[in-house]
Amino acid sequence: MGAELDLAEDEAAAVFSARKIRARLRADTVKPIVAFRDTLAWGRDRLYGLFDEGQPADSLVHARAHIVDEVLREAWLRALPETLAGVTLVAVGGYGRGELLPHSDIDILLLHAGDALDQHRGALERFTAFLWDIGLEVGQSVRTVDECVSEAAKDITVITNLIESRWLIGDASLYTQMQAALTPDKVWPVGEFFRAKREEQAARYRKYDDTGYKLEPNVKESPGGLRDIHTIGWVAKRHFGAQTLHELRERGFLTKNECDELFAGQDFLWRVRFALHMITGRREDRLLFDHQIKVAGLFGYVDTDKNRAVEQFMQLYYRTIKSLSCLNDMLLQLFDDAILHGDQQPPAVPLNARFQTRGAYIEARDEEVFRKQPAALIEIFLLLQQNPKLAGISAATVRLILRDNRLLTQEAREDSRARGLFIEMFRHGAGLTRNLRRMNRYGVLGRYLPAFGKVVGLMQYDLFHTLTVDEHSLYVVRNVRRMALPRFAHELPFCNELFGKLEKPKLLYIAAFFHDMCKGSGGDHSELGLLEARKFCLDHGLSHADAEIVGWLVKNHLTMSLTAQRADISDPEVVTAFARKVAARERLDYLFLLTVADIRATNPALWNSWRATLLTDLYRSTARALERGLDNPLQASDIATEAQIAALEILKGSGVTPEQARAVWARFESDYFLRHSPQELAWHLPEIINAKPEELPLILVSMLDGRGTTVFVYTPDRDHLFGLSTGVLARLGLNILDARINTTADGFTLDSYVVMEGDGSAISQGHRFEEIRDSLHRVLADPNISVVDVNRRTSQKLKHFDTPTDVSFSLDKVRNRTILELVTADRPGLLSMIGRIFQKRGLLLDAAKIGTIGERAEDVFFITDADHKPISDPSQLDELREVLVRTLDHNSTH
């Protein structure tokens, strides 16, 4: 339901007069198909031009429906008489509302009675065929009135389509009969209809994970999208017989400002959908990465120093749907009261001098409460937190909050009562996430904390972050809260156990809330966030010691994940350096939990068993280092010995003797024992002992040690082994998460790869293990194969990001090797390509840390020259950098 129907017709006529349309359609009686096609093309081009000129979207969507009306009527008259008893043509669905985008579905109903359908079947078939000939794709149903009633009674979607129908041409009395047969007293009473539409909306929300703030939203179906406005219109029409959303204001459901906000939001979303249809040339309601930059350009946005044009546009989109979500919440609650409860309102129960409960909702006792005491804008959410059985805030009070949240001025924010109420929410803990989200939804959170207000709706144009900054921050708080709750202990048992030992959980909640709050502010958001978080803590009565912990966590919230992903954490020196930065076990506990919560909220594909094991290993190693004392670090030889002892314990009873183990292990460097767990050592050893030379290479594949699927290769060393192995794995559609490369003193290699399926799922099928083994063996056993071509296509999403290759070098003095850090566009076969470059230059790969961050590959390679020495010649490093940049940028996704 949009503007009033006669007003819509007036607007449409201002764009296309019916007389002009008919004249064009009748211009060529010899070739009518050409005339109709040309008219549709003329109409489309006219609408595109008006869009570019800034014409309001509501006039464009009504004009599109208007021209289709005339085309259908003229096509009908070519096959059938205008006055035809027993058959009529009806527009249904969005077309019935008089709203069509350039490529929207055109749904029509052929309503018939008696034997009229059989009498005119030939003419009707010619009518339908003509529509296809002129390129007008329609969705058509053919029913009698009784069939309409029967289908509508069974399906909420059918009744919804029919109640917003419009008569087009034919027997108008038949359409009147259908309308009379579908009234609420005959089918779908108002209460049942409302409940069904409310559940339909809830199911739709669940489909989108109850958030409209994902980075590729559906403009029509996502929470806060156009479908929310449609739901309001459907209920209003069914209950009140309303023909226009304006009537909600007339009936007291909306104020003038709210009505203006609703129509402004609808117009914006229509313009976005119109732009999507225009640039894709098809029906497209998803704001995919492919389209966002183009749509932002059509809306006139340009890049600035702080934000790209696409980020500015998307921030407006997210703020618009937040506003529409508030209106949807409020109106559905008002409908609930009016439709389901009527005058039977439960009695009010006072909570304090300012608030009371009525049924399941909290409400203000005085319409001026927020104007008299702005701190009450915080208090109401704390009361909700302290009374978890309440379902929410009454619609009337939501209206007051939306009206008065601007009163949270600097003076109000500095009020000790407001600060005390807000920090109490973090101390209370239970219900924190839900009520911070409510505060954000109703505009209070951004008013109380202006730094948070700046990131509301702020997206980052990449494939790494899947939510806006504000939504991501609240998800991190949510993840931390779940760690505290026994009912979610099965998700992350170790985190749940560790959380139970925290002395001050509120510090972790605050750090989670603030960790990304200064994104988009220019500069290092971690450094700026430290200052913002520390000031918040001191302003809200926390001690200097607590403020320092929170500030340190915000500043270092990426440190643990970067160390685990980009450094060789099997190296005791790396662990000791990380332990020195952490300095205390208390900080380590907080940082570990914050890191896990952050990764899980950033992108669901990031969290997997391998990453969990990686972080847990770093946590345990660091905790052990702190317990020993930083002046007494662990030695590599001690760790290697411990690993061997543990592996032999696992192998007891397997038939492998300690003497056999020592004979094999004597050939291996100590790095092998540092980089592999005792379980892996025990897995490798019997297979290596039993492997016959003629059967090599030995390929093992298993789900092991909580790391995900591990592929182990034991074979005589050969040129380009890394490139061949990674090429085979890439060709199989696998993602490589980790690579550990070891060589023996007698010329064998022991390589381990942690892999998962290309979609991020675990490899669980036995036949898939066999496929990996057979494919690797076939290639590595053939000395004539020197290159593996990876023919997998680059995903469509990756093609829309430009990531120039960046290469930097540093020296690992302890391990006597060169560290090469590489950032480039991710693509299938990337590691194989890099391996070929190393091989051609006689470089040896000692280890690799593989990190894919959305569209970016951020990999670290530990390399030496052919003599196992670091590369110290600057000209050689410059040449390697130049070759990598030239090769990878030339073969990028663009």
TrEMBL record:
Q: What is the lineage of its organism?
A: Bacteria, Pseudomonadati, Pseudomonadota, Gammaproteobacteria, Nevskiales
Q: Which UniProt keywords are present, listed alphabetically?
A: Hydrolase, Magnesium, Multifunctional enzyme, Nucleotidyltransferase, Repeat, Transferase
**Which SUPFAM superfamilies did the record assign?**
ACT-like, HD-domain/PDEase-like, Nucleotidyltransferase, Nucleotidyltransferase substrate binding subunit/domain
Tell me the protein's name: Bifunctional uridylyltransferase/uridylyl-removing enzyme
User: Which family, according to UniProt?
Assistant: Belongs to the GlnD family.
SMART domains recorded = HDc
Recorded source organism is Hydrocarboniphaga effusa AP103
The organism's superkingdom is given as: Bacteria
Cofactor names from the entry are: Mg(2+)
What does the protein in this record do?
Answer: Modifies, by uridylylation and deuridylylation, the PII regulatory proteins (GlnB and homologs), in response to the nitrogen status of the cell that GlnD senses through the glutamine level. Under low glutamine levels, catalyzes the conversion of the PII proteins and UTP to PII-UMP and PPi, while under higher glutamine levels, GlnD hydrolyzes PII-UMP to PII and UMP (deuridylylation). Thus, controls uridylylation state and activity of the PII proteins, and plays an important role in the regulation of nitrogen metabolism.
